[in-house]
């Protein structure tokens, strides 16, 4: 393939995640984006899947039992000369480390905020990971068709709670029953809201309202809009594309996903303001997407997507070169060569075979147990490893042991495999070698228990611990007397020291008492 064609393919790719708190409207927005891309013909498809009405054989048993999605799926579609990959971040009870890890595989993020609620807990956690990676984050404030918080208050909240500059690109005119539309500060057009009918645009320079404006927006609201625009122009942040691309400023848009209002203009701006796939650090330096050989890394392993086959799917983010089905690759960790005969791409939970893929794309590889989270795979050429994925702090902990001591070998095998897949974190206490599992979400424990029984025929016993905060720490900084049962010292599977704090109070007390001990929230090598 010519370098030029490759460059076009890379430049047109956008790989992003939608981060939000449950119920903010992520599913609804995703659905509207899929409609834009022509991937679905009617609204309701994605929601039906979520509510369990969507028939598919691809859900794990536990997913079916609970009617929720355990795993993140990937949606791919084309829109306006772009090839889009949306990587879903599972929320609700299925919030897990996979949700965090997904964010290591994307180049940008859309943050959906419920305008009636503002910033919520899960949004904040996911935002922090995006911020750490310095990726562009665009904000969509949803549910303007409902009475919500004051837009200025919402901006303040973004700046104060998330500690990021904001720039409202669109601005709402009224809300709830009095919602009339939004004003776009870039295009200088008002998008008029008509409930279930299609919206339309009228020009407005922010000063003189034409008859067309006055026919569609109440005069009182036009005056209010003028004041608010000049306030934003004078007192607000300046816009800077560089800051957006560096993840230092979030452009903000207002709309209503359910009414499909403001979604298209938001997405058009999103495509303009975000970057195509970016270079990644590796053991041989930066690997650009244009690098000649295929390379990618595994950010997620999903078991039993199809219970009939008991197979595993490793999700690969393509970082450079061209992926072709059936190609030979080297697994960098073991330097083993393998042929990639089975590969998939995804629309929600249905799979299609993929024959080729390019930087930015996410593909699923059939995995017979060869892969681990963070593995690098490479086509021809020099073998290298991408930098390790960061480790994220679990918040739930449980001591685990096998019920029947005779099954100890199976237990060890199962736990090793599931930990390598990233299903849970495993810690050991230094002297007694107690095994402690760490999870971000409750469901991880349930999946672990279910899989230990189903795949390794082992019954396990959990005893839940009080501890709720984990921080990595340099072992050399730990002194006698610093730790006890409320500040438990454990080691992760790479022998890095971790402190488990019983609660926020104990955590603060420790920080006050030992201000020099550096405590890491996210562990990066
Ligand atoms: P999530 O994926 O972030 O969890 O949110 P989801 O899209 O499922 O939306 C959560 C609820 O909010 C849904 O209502 C959905 O219809 C509603 N919603 C989403 N966007 C908007 C919006 O722009 N305006 C308003 N007013 N509501 C919105 P539900 O009652 O839980 O489900 P359903 O009965 O509508 O299916």
UniProtKB/TrEMBL annotation:
Identify the residues that bind GTP: 20-27, 88-92, 142-145
UniProt-annotated location(s): Cytoplasm
Fetch the InterPro entries from UniProt. EF-G-like_DII, EFG_III/V, G_TR_CS, P-loop_NTPase, PrfC, RF3_C, RF3_dom_3_sf, RF3_GTP-bd
What does the function comment of this entry state?
Answer: Increases the formation of ribosomal termination complexes and stimulates activities of RF-1 and RF-2. It binds guanine nucleotides and has strong preference for UGA stop codons. It may interact directly with the ribosome. The stimulation of RF-1 and RF-2 is significantly reduced by GTP and GDP, but not by GMP.
HAMAP family under this entry? Rel_fac_3 (MF_00072)
Family matches, as PROSITE patterns: G_TR_1 (PS00301), G_TR_2 (PS51722)
Q: Which residues form the Tr-type G domain?
A: 11-278
Q: In which domain of life is the source organism classified?
A: Bacteria
The UniProt GO MF terms for this protein read:
GTP binding; GTPase activity; translation release factor activity, codon nonspecific; translation release factor activity, codon specific
Source species = Priestia koreensis
Protein name as annotated: Peptide chain release factor 3
**Per the annotation, which location comes first and is thus the protein's main one?**
cytoplasm
- GO cellular component, as recorded: cytosol
Return the similarity comment: Belongs to the TRAFAC class translation factor GTPase superfamily. Classic translation factor GTPase family. PrfC subfamily.
Query: Which lineage is the organism of this entry classified under, starting from the top rank?
Result: Bacteria, Bacillati, Bacillota, Bacilli, Bacillales
Question: Per UniProt, what is the name of the gene that codes for the protein in this document?
Answer: prfC
Single Gene Ontology BP annotation: regulation of translational termination
Q: Which UniProt keywords apply?
A: Cytoplasm, GTP-binding, Nucleotide-binding, Protein biosynthesis
Q: Identify the Pfam families for this entry.
A: EF-G_D2, GTP_EFTU, RF3_C
Spell out the NCBIfam families in the cross-references: prfC, PRK00741.1, small_GTP
């Amino acid at each position: 393939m010519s370098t030029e064609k490759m460059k076009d393919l890379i430049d047109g790719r956008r790989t992003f995640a939608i981060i939000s708190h449950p119920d903010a409207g992520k599913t609804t927005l995703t659905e509207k984006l899929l409609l834009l891309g022509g991937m679905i013909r009617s609204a309701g498809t994605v929601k039906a899947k979520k509510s369990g009405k969507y028939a598919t054989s691809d859900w794990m048993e536990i997913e079916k039992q609970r009617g929720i999605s355990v795993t993140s799926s990937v949606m791919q579609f084309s829109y306006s000369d772009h090839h889009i990959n949306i990587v879903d971040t599972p929320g609700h009870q299925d919030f897990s480390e996979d949700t965090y890890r997904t964010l290591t595989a994307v180049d940008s993020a859309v943050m959906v905020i419920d305008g009636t609620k503002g910033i919520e807990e899960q949004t904040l956690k996911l935002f922090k990971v995006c911020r750490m990676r310095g990726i562009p984050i665009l904000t969509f404030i949803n549910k303007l068709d409902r009475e919500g918080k004051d837009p200025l208050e919402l901006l303040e909240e973004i700046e104060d709670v998330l500690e990021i500059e904001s720039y409202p690109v669109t601005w709402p005119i009224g809300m709830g029953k009095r919602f009339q539309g939004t004003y776009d500060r870039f295009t200088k057009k008002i998008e008029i809201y008509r409930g279930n009918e299609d919206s339309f645009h009228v020009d407005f320079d922010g000063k003189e309202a034409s008859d067309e404006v006055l026919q569609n927006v109440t005069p009182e609201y036009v005056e209010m809009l003028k004041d608010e625009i000049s306030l934003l122009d004078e007192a607000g942040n300046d816009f800077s594309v560089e800051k957006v691309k560096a993840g230092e400023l979030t452009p903000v848009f207002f709309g209503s996903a359910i009414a499909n209002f403001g979604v298209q203009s938001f997405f058009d701006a999103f495509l303009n303001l975000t970057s195509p796939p970016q270079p990644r650090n590796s053991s041989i330096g930066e690997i650009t997407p244009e690098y000649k050989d295929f390379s990618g890394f595994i950010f997620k392993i999903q078991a039993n997507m199809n219970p009939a086959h008991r197979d595993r799917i490793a999700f690969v983010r393509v970082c450079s070169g061209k992926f072709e089905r059936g190609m030979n690759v080297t697994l960098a960790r073991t330097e083993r060569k393998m042929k990639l005969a089975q590969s998939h791409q995804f629309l929600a939970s249905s799979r299609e075979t993929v024959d080729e893929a390019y930087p930015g794309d996410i593909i699923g590889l059939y995995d017979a147990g060869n892969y681990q989270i963070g593995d690098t795979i490479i086509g021809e050429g020099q073998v290298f490893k991408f930098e390790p994925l960061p480790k994220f702090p679990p918040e739930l902990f449980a001591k685990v042991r096998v019920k029947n001591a005779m099954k100890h070998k199976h237990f060890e095998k199962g736990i090793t495999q599931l930990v390598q897949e990233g299903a849970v974190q495993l810690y050991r206490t230094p002297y007694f070698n107690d095994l402690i599992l760490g999870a971000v979400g409750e469901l991880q424990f349930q999946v672990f228990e279910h899989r230990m029984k189903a795949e390794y025929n082992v019954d396990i016993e959990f005893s839940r611990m009080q501890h709720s905060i984990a921080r990595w720490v340099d072992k050399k900084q730990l002194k006698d007397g610093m730790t006890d049962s409320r500040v438990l010292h454990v080691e992760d599977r790479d022998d890095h020291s971790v402190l488990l704090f019983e609660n926020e109070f104990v955590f603060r007390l420790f920080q006050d008492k030992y201000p020099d001990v550096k405590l890491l929230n996210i562990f990066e090598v």
